[in-house]
Amino acid sequence: MKNTLKNPALQIGVGAILGIAFGLAVGEWAANLKFVGDLFIRLIQMAIVPLVMSSVIVATGAMTGLGMGKMAFRTFKWMIGFSVVAALLAWGISAVIRPGAGIDFSGGVDPALQESAGAATGWQDTLLNFVSTNIFAAMSTATMVPIIIFSLLFGVALNAYIAKTGNRLVLDLFDQIQQVVLTMIRFVMLIAPIGVFCLLANLAGTVGFSVVTSALKYLGSTLLGVLILFALFVLVVWMRTGLNPAKLPAKLSDQTMIAITTTSSAVTFPTVLRTATEKVGVSQRVANFTLSVGLTMGSYGAVLNYMIVVMFLAQSGAVTLDLGTIVLGMALAILLNVGTITVPGGFPVVATFLATSLGLPFEAVGLLIAVDWFTGIFRTFLNVNGDTFVAMLVANASNELDRDVYDGKKTGTTDSLDLGKHEEHGKPKEQSEAVHAAV
C-alpha cells in the first residue's frame, strides 16, 4: 500500500482529480492558483534547452557504423514510413474530432516565447530560420529547431573527431551534462502533483466542466489512432508475408500484457525478443538488430500521441496552424523518436518542448499530464507490437522468417540473445516512465 501511494502517476492523478473538483467548486477564484502551475511549467522549460542539446549531441556523437546494409535500410524504411503515417493519422483524427476545442480559453502564447513563435513570411524564410546565425541567441529565446540543427551537426562532427582520434572527453562531458539535467528534472517532478492540481484548478474554475469532456476526447482520439494504426500494421504484415493474422493475438499476448501493465517498453523488451524468435519465427540476426533499433526509432504510438498533443494545444488556445507549422509539428513528433532520455514522468517535458517549439499556449498542458498514464498504456501497446511487426517485415524481405515457427510446427531459439544487455538500454517509449529528446 505504501509503495502504491508513492507511485508518481497515482499522485499526479489524485492531484488532477482534486484540482478539477476544487476548480469546479470555487469557480473563478481558482485562477489565483495559476501562478503556481505556471511556475511548475517554467521549471521544466528552464531545463529543455540544455537537455535537448546534450541529448542530441550524445546520441549522434556516440553512433557507430553498426547496421549498414540492406537490413538497416529495410528497418529504417518501415519505421520511418509508419512514423509518417502515424503523424498524418493523428493530424486527421484531431482535425475531425477536435479534442482541444471544448476548452476554448482566451489565453495566448507565453510572452517569453513571442520571439521564437514569430511566423515566417514564406517557406524560404522558414527554412532559413531553421539555421541560426547565433546559437546563443537561439538558446536564449528557446528557438528549438535551430538548436536541434546545431546539435546534430556538432554531434556528427564530434563523432568524426572521436573516430579519428579516439578521444571521447567531449562526448563524456555532454553525457554527464545530460545526466545532471535529468536529475534536475527529477527534482522538478517531485512537485508535479501540486503543479497539476493548480493548473487544473485554474482550468476547471475558468472553463468549467468542459475540461472533463476535453480530456475524454483527447483519450478517445489517441485510442482511436492506436487501433487504426494497429489494424494497418496487421494488414501490411498479412499482405507482405501471407501469414495468418488470426494467430497474432495469441503470439503477442505475453508482451502485450507486460506492456499495458507496466507501460514500460524497457521492461517489455526481453519478452519482445523472445516472442519474435520463439513464437513468430524472426531470425536471431534480424531480431537483435531490428528490435534494438526499434528501441530508438519505433515509437509509433508516441508519434501519434505527440501530434495529437500539438493539435490539442492549438485547438484549446484557438490557435490556427498553417500548413508549414503542421508539417513542422509532424517532423518534430517523428524526430522525438530518435535518441533517448530516461526520466520518470517525463511527459511534461515533451508537451512543453512541443509547445515551445511551435509557439503554442501552455494552459492545457496540465490536463494532458493528468491523463498521461492512460495514454502511456496506449503508446506502449502500439510501440511494442509495432516493433514486432516491423521485425517480421524485415525478416520476410531477407528470407529470415521461419514459417514453421509461426505456424507452431516448431519453436525458435533465443540461445544467442544477450537479453541483459538490451535491458540496460531499453527505450522509454512511454512517457509515464520516460521522455524522448528530439534528436
Supply database-style keywords.
439 residues, Proton glutamate symport protein, 20 helices, 0% strand
Short summary:
The chain has 439 residues and is mostly helical. It has 20 helices and no strands.
CATH overall fold name: Proton glutamate symport protein
Helical percentage: over 70%
Strand content: under 5%
How far the N terminus sits from the C terminus, by CA atoms, comes to 39 Å
Oligomer: single chain
Mean pLDDT comes to: 77
The CATH C-level name is Mainly Alpha
Domain unit count: 1
Protein model, in words:
The structure is a single chain. The protein is an all-alpha fold and about 450 residues long. The protein has one domain (about 1-425): Proton glutamate symport protein (Orthogonal Bundle). About 70% of the residues lie in helices and about 0% in strands. The chain contains 20 helices and no strands. It has helices spanning about 1-5, 10-25, 35-60, 70-95, 125-130, 135-140, 145-165, 170-190, 190-205, 210-240, 250-260, 265-280, 285-295, 300-315, 325-335, 345-360, 365-370, 370-395, 405, 420-425. The two termini are about 40 Å apart. About 50% of the residues are buried.
